[in-house]
Design brief:
alpha+beta, about 35% strand, three-stranded antiparallel β-sheet
Length: about 70
């Protein structure tokens, strides 16, 4: 059974491009996490500085290892 993790992350105005770059840089680490299935990044419709990260993991472990690499954007 897959575990779906959803995080709605407020990004500092003007830092959206840097945040997306940080996700892209962290993607290999995320994909190497045990049980990785998929990762999706979406921008908010009404609030362009709110980004949603949805990760699917087979076992729910691993996300904390990469989350610190994208903060504090």
């Amino acid at each position: 059974m897959a575990v779906i993790e959803h995080a709605s992350l407020p990004v500092r105005p003007g830092m959206e491009v840097e945040f997306e770059a940080a996700i892209a840089k962290a993607r290999p680490l995320i994909e190497a996490s045990p049980g990785f299935i998929s990762l999706t990044l979406r921008r908010g419709v009404g609030n362009r500085t709110a980004l949603s990260v949805v990760g699917r993991m087979a076992n729910g472990r691993g996300s904390s290892r990469w989350f610190s690499s994208i903060r504090p954007l």
